[in-house]
Specification:
The structure is a single chain. With 663 residues, the protein is an alpha/beta fold. It has a domain at 56-333: Rossmann fold. Helix content is 63%, strand content 10%. The chain contains 23 helices and twelve strands. The protein has helices at residues 4-33, 39-54, 69-77, 125-129, 145-152, 163-168, 201-204, 215-220, 222-231, 247-257, 285-303, 315-324, 327-333, 335-389, 394-434, 439-455, 459-502, 514-533, 535-541, 543-574, 577-602, 607-636, 640-643, and strands at residues 57-62, 98-101, 110-115, 136-139, 158-161, 177-179, 182-189, 191-197, 207-211, 234-240, 267-273, 310-312. A nine-stranded mixed β-sheet has the order 4-3-8-2-9-1-10-11-12, with helices on both faces. A three-stranded antiparallel β-sheet has the order 5-7-6. Helix 1 (4-33) packs parallel to helix 14 (335-389), helix 1 (4-33) packs antiparallel against helix 22 (607-636) and helix 17 (459-502) runs antiparallel to helix 18. The two termini are 19 Å apart.
Amino acid sequence: MESARLSSQMDAYLQWRQEIHRELTRYRGWLIDHNVQNAELEAKLEQALQTLKDDKITLAFVGEFSRGKTELINALFFSHYGTRILPSGAGRTTMCPTELLFDHRASESYIRLLPIETRMVGSSLASFRKIPEKWVFVPLNADDPRMMKKAFSEVAQLKSVSPNEASAMGFQIDLLEKDVNNASKVLIPAWRHAMISFDHPLLRQGLTIIDTPGLNALGCEPELTFSLLPEAQSILFLLSASSGVSATDLDIWNRHIRDLALRESTGVYAILNKVDSVWDELEDEQFNKRVLGDIRAQCARQLAIAPDEILCVSAKEGLLAQVEGNMTRLDQSFLPELEELLSNDMMRRKEHLIQKSVIKDIHSMLHGSRKTLLRRRESVLAELRVLKAEESDRKSQLEKMLSQARHEQAFYHKKLILLKSSRKMILREGTAMLEPVHSDKLNQYLKDAGKALTSSWTIVGMNNAIDSFFDNLKRDMSELAARQEKIQPLVADIYAKYEAELGMAPLDYPRFSPREYVTRLDDLRTKSGSFRRNLRKLLTEQKATSKRFLSTIVNEGSTIYRQYERAAKSWLNDVLLPLFQNAQEQKHLLDEHIQKLRALGNADDNAEQRISNMESMLEDLDEQIVEVEDMIKGLRKPAPIHQNRKVFPVITSQLPDPSFTRR
């Protein structure tokens, strides 16, 4: 079985996303066709379309070695090959962080391996991604499972080095295996990072799978902790039923995983794997249930979560069952429950993010267009009734309608001028608002932090440099937020006056949320604390690792700062956009209406022709309303999860059947 449920959910999600893209493109065309497009609307639509284009789904498997992470990946995604494509078995198998993906730009499948020696340089993974010649390229024949398995085994290669060399590359010596052929050396991964690209249905659909090798990788590659894992939609934290929660398991959970569970965009799942290893077939079912229940409860206490938040599974049994085609054995492995959880919850989170980041704003813009058209239709309908009722004095009625239309046209022309004046005022206030957060100030903070870190010879000095950097960023961001709060009443007043003059219901306008960015900065500072507490050891034994961590912390903080600055600028540019859109669309419709009324006035005094022309105008408006409502309907189409009315399963107490089938 090839993770059919997840594949089906992803298919539905991609189709839904394509439909959203189509409706956005259609709306852009409608705005252009009716001459109501402007630079601000175009920028908003382009941003939404780019968000859809860049969208991807990431699933990360995290845990200490020998927890069955790679076996679970094989069981969930690659059982149709009939063998263990990714190396898994007793002991350490995944020796370096591995990304499984489909590279649409590549003409063939490949494995790219970054040598472990690059850790000595101190440069980040992101920088090495841009230098292909630093990677070892291994061709991959995706049509031959045997050759694929052989190629994948390269990822698990080891090399023998001295403890000093291993320490310099960031490894904790006490977590490394001794070289049986040379007692004075230890074994380390041959590779720092692996990227595997091949054509697989789920990978082609945009899924990226991250397999991590354990604490030694999470502790040495800051980008895993600060970038790759936080960007994942789902994180599976694996434990082994045979060992429970070890000290290193707890360290990984507390330092790298626990806080991610608080993020709206990330689903974190505790998986108790290898439950078949503690099931004693010589004992009765109730005894085995109690044993597994006790293990589960103990794990939950140590992780400070509820027992029913831990899902039991046997990846090994699930893989073997699928290879054999034994559905009874598959059900007993509890793999289907895990697959359903992932397919439902991961897709639900992605859909929620798209609805929040794309659909909400465009939906509001479309509703603004619809309201404008409906108001214009009411006006034309009233004028048509007058034409039909006043047969004796149509000319004067026509002049009256033209005068009214010109009056409204002048009104909206004036409103546009006033709105431009209001925008200048907002931008003028916004210039002062943006002063605290500026790229020049960030560059100076980076320069000061770099100078302080390189010149300091003490732990206190380095920690003070990092604290000062974070303090500067947060002070600037907080000051901008305070100034933005002073502008907010001005914005509210502009909207209230516009709505009152037109007798409109309140318009929904863009909001700026500083808290999101400040919280991310605080989280980053908290995460960096565990590293900084070990700074003395890192500086004496792992200088390259120390440099990477400090660099990553500073870079991630800078990224949040820049995103905050862009978000503030975007808010200033967009905050009056709904008013401009409303006024421009109203004026454009009035321009067309006046043009047609003039044509009626220049025509022969033919009542029927005038009525026919007015009805034609009404039909044009009706067609536009139908088109806009159709686009609104397209954007309001329920996401696949809601269409299927899925109930998202809570991880409940489920214990395996006593009769695990053995080979």
